[in-house]
Amino acid sequence: MVNVATRLQILLIGALLFPRLLNHRLFAMDTAEQNCVRSIKLWPPSQNTRQVLVDRIIKNLTTPSILSRRYGVLSKEEAEEEAKQIESSAFATANQLFEKEQDGDGKSSVELYAKTSSTLMVEAIKRGPKSKEDQEPLFESITENDQTLFDISKGDRSFLDAEKTKQLLKPLQEPGNKYTKICFSNTSFGVDAARVAVPILSLVKHQLKEVNLSDFIAGRPEEEALEVMSMFSSALDGSDLRYLCLSENALGEKGVRAFSELLSSQNNLEELYLMNNGISEEAAKAVCELIPSTKKLKTLHFHNNMTGDEGAIAISELLKKSPILEDFRCSSTRVGSEGGVALSDAISKCTLLKKLDLRDNMFGVEAGLALSKAISVFSNLTEIHLSYLNLEDEGASVLVNALNNSGSPLEVVEMAGNDITVKSASSLAAFLISKRESLTKINLSENELKDEGSMVISKALEDEFPRLTEVDLSSNQIRRAGARVLAQAVVGKPGFKLLNINGNFLSDEGVEDVKEIFKNSPDLLGSLDENDPEGEEYNDEDGDGDDDDDELESRLKGLDIKQEE
């Protein structure tokens, strides 16, 4: 029976990661296995099942693919490290769900386990391999403006035991040391190592201003990891920090509460990072409950969590108590329309915002409309990341109109993957012109602007943009005419660095046209190897491809872009 259960777990996880195999594999089960599906507890997965998932993730991270061609293939060593972290994080996330639904068979937890693993795996691919600069010696001591950093995060991950920890942390015990910042990231403390670290941290905690404990319990069983977190929390209780990073630790609510002593003693935090922590609705509420004051908070990052609408509502309460917040990131947190509206309302209270990142959520049009009201009050915003929010034309138009009318000196604008069409092109163009003095990067990739929309954008870009360095209109169903006009609009700009129009419908002739335009500066043109010369869907709808080029370009002549009053 155990073997059948294990096989069923592997089957379900594999099918969820590779859906096309689902029907075939289920059909291949014998009658006894099929009869067991309803009676077997599918959660928690066996150790063998967990290892199978780790092996599959390693294979995906080290196998060339469309994504890896863009971001790079990880080495076997990096892939093994990433795979273990991904599986551990996914397991912790799914186990939280199972603890709420213990009467079930665990299928929903297995589904979440697979889905979370898949999401984290794609993110690992997009991060790409580590740069050479990351491969440094294990210990580093750096002085910056009379503050000293004690950093043990460099090089390969180290699984610390008591003796190694004692040797590694010796500098912190030196009389009269002036360390005010510590970084224990990219390590793995077990209980024995923590017992050595705790008294040392207790000695220096009152001089510390910055603490980075991200990714410091990797590969440890949940019970041990929670105990280690609790020990570090107790050791640092009473410190007066300005910066705290607890990212990459698969915290969940249990982990957040394991850090309760540390969090509840912080009244002067200026920066808080809780990224990739499995922050659920309950965990988000716990964070808000434990931190006594965010009046001095300037940076708050919640990237890549399972926060959802209810969690977003809890975070909104934290935002309302953070009047001087300058940098807010709540990307990839599964927030839908209700949570998006709540966040938007709270963000309107943070009038000093300079950076706003809400990418990869499920806001939809309603939350987009609410956000447009919030950002209209900003005058200091320099970066706004609104990609993959399901804004559509209606949401995108009201947002760019609000930004157009704001006094913010925007430098970076990202609105990729929002189903934006030519209907919004005039509003986008007017907005770009209104911010031409400050804009450095424009990302409108993975939309549906097509030739006509891209030409409207190109017309705007013909104006002077003294600081513009990057334009991304990849994957927008653009053909030869649109690509040619866009290339001509940016090629001669001083300081320009990259035009990305890959993944469009350029014919071979169109590719040659664009390359010819950039013949004196080929490094400024991104790769064009993923274009689809056929562009069947677009051609069927709009005509015969290059035959329409002259007509499309003629539409551009005399085009006026109306700016909002």
From TrEMBL:
Biased composition annotated in UniProt, kind: Acidic residues: 529-552
Localization of this protein: Cytoplasm; Nucleus
SUPFAM superfamilies reported in the protein's UniProt record: RNI-like
Every WPP domain range: 39-134
Endpoints of the signal sequence: none
One MF annotation (Gene Ontology) recorded for this entry: GTPase activator activity
UniProt keyword annotations, A-Z: Cytoplasm, Nucleus
Superkingdom field: Eukaryota
Biased composition (Basic and acidic residues): 553-565
One annotated Gene Ontology cellular component of this protein: nucleus
Chief subcellular location: cytoplasm
Identification of the protein by name: WPP domain-containing protein
